[in-house]
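Need Trypsin's 3D structure for a figure. Predict it.
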Amino acid sequence: MQVGILIQVGNNNFFCGGSLISNTFVLTAAHCVDGGNAVEVRLGAHEINSNTEPTQVRILASAWVLHPQWDASLIRNDVALIQLSQPAPISENIRPVNLPTRAEAGNTFAGAAGRISGWGLDSDSATAISPVLREVQVNVISNLLCNIQFLGMIQPTNICTSGAGGRGACSGDSGGPLVVDNRQAGIVSFGLALGCEIGWPSAFARVTSFLDWIDQN
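Structure prediction for Trypsin:
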């Protein structure tokens, strides 16, 4: 299930997405919480800034851990776990996402239809995150094709979606889920700095590459 994450870094606040994977842990991108000194998770939200939305629950994080091989300069191993300070109240609106099984470790998902969701910018001209949760249907492409466009940045631990039609992740969507066949295949990691609507692929951390690390933490 999609969550919103507010991160305080020094005197600045940043916004990311994430996904609830149990009643006490949230999966997100390492670059979202790197350097953070306070983290709040918003669950069951549609209108992310609403103080009166009946389904929305806000829980502070008690801890967060970045992947030990997270490399900010190369944007590799862009994965982190957030531990909630209290269990999330599981309900119809707040429930954990399904993760792939280890049997799917060799599945590239290339050619599959997927869904990206989040409160990120809804256009290149937008100046603030979307007030409501949005989603877009996308197609997973091969890492080979993605690497041609990202000039070798894509690793086996990444997964990419086509930017056809200007559809993809945008600023503010980082850390959120790419869902394929009702399970989370990716974590929004990076795109092209020139804009979200120019048809470039979106790059994600490949969840199947990090299942052992997730279990161990």
